[in-house]
Amino acid sequence: MRYNLLGNTGLKVSELCLGTMTFGGKGIYTAIGTLPQDEVDALVRHSVEAGINFIDTANVYSEGLSEQMTGTAIRNLGLKRDDLIIATKVRGRVGEGPNHLGLTRKHILQQVEESLRRLQIDYIDLYQIHGYDTLTPLEETLAALDSLVTSGKVRYIGCSNLSAWHIMRSLSVSERHDYAKFISLQAYYTIAARDIEREIVPLLLDQKIGLMVWSPLAGGLLSGKYTRNSAPEEGRRVNFDFPPVNRDKVYDVVDVMQEIAKARDVSVARIALAWLLHQPVVSTIVIGAKRPQQLEDNLAAIHLKLDPSELEKLDTVSKLDPEYPGWMLEYQGKDRRWDRS
Fold first, then answer.
1. SS3 call for 166
2. Which residues 6+ apart lie within 8 Å of 273 measured at CB?
3. How close are the terminal C-alpha atoms of the chain, in Å?
């Protein structure tokens, strides 16, 4: 296991992060996973023994049950709290009232206490907003998050599912008011959907913000079970067809991945994860599993090094279609590139 710096900090996180969306299973999350506590303990133990030091959850996963089971697993296994980087999130609805969601100061300060209680810890390493709140002033949100960092209840703050302009505006507000800044973005990124490369990846690299990848297998489409001519009758995509994808494009990518996977005698899923690990912007990939075999296969991706010809094939079949202003910036920038000769 390798460890990467998370954003512009000295914090080292494992290149694979254990996701907990399969823990428990309540509400809409029953379609993703319903693991009981003993199986959660086993997955956490296996992950930590493999070198993972980073665990990601959220207050809305299985209506708080995921956080609770994560904390119980850490306690059951006798893991040292300070050896772990624990991340969770806030924004989603947690009750029926009008203020039981969003990024208001009231909701953030209430929910951080709830998350700490469920996780059975006294501080959160990375507290992330789970999306954008169009009703709450950004200054209010960032001031509340800054107060949590100042109090010691939160070490760092991050964001998830924001657009490039959201992130840049947030950084500007934090700079102007001397608030804690977002050090990371958790975003959807996969060889089957490279959308964030248009605007967000250049921003992350320029501003030295870390990238945590969610759904690297495109909601199971890159698990190896789905092909142009066949699909399982059961599974996550059958019950919860998300994230949205261009199926024709995915199957073009899968065709090439299958070819490489067969030559390497590895799974298609492992190829998908290995491709992401080759991307310089990626700090860590959030992986989740229902079964030990899935976790083992995902963990093995860190040992798979794709050669230049394989990377070229994968990049070519999955590349984004030209889009303005990207193609104009590329065209106009030709005469301003550094010539090292």
1. helix
2. 216, 217, 285, 287, 298, 301, 304
3. 37
Total-model pTM: 0.95
- Residue that wins the pLDDT comparison between 241 and 118: 118
- Given 29, 61, 132, 226, which residue is catalytic? 61
Distances from the Cα of 190 to the Cαs of 11, 272, 286, 318, 330, in angstroms? 24, 7, 12, 10, 23
**What are the φ and ψ backbone dihedral angles of 263, each rounded to 5 degrees?**
-65, -30
Using only C-alpha atoms, the chain has a radius of gyration, in whole angstroms, of 20
Q: Where are the domains of the chain?
A: 3-220+279-305
Cβ neighbors of 293 (< 8 A, separation 6 or more) are none
The yes/no answer on whether domain 3-220+279-305 falls in CATH 3.90.950.10 is: no
Distance between CA atoms of 222 and 190, rounded to whole angstroms? 9
154-160 and 210-214 as β-strands: parallel, antiparallel, unpaired? unpaired
pLDDT digits (tens, 9 = 90+) for 72-100: 999 999 999 999 999 999 999 999 999 99
Residues 192 and 245: their CA atoms lie apart, in Å, by 8
CB of 204 closer than 8 Å to CB of 281? yes
Q: Residue 303 has which token pair?
A: 């040992």
Residue 239 in this model has a pLDDT that exceeds 60: yes
Identify whether 156 is a catalytic site residue.
no
pLDDT exceeds cutoff 90 at 118? yes
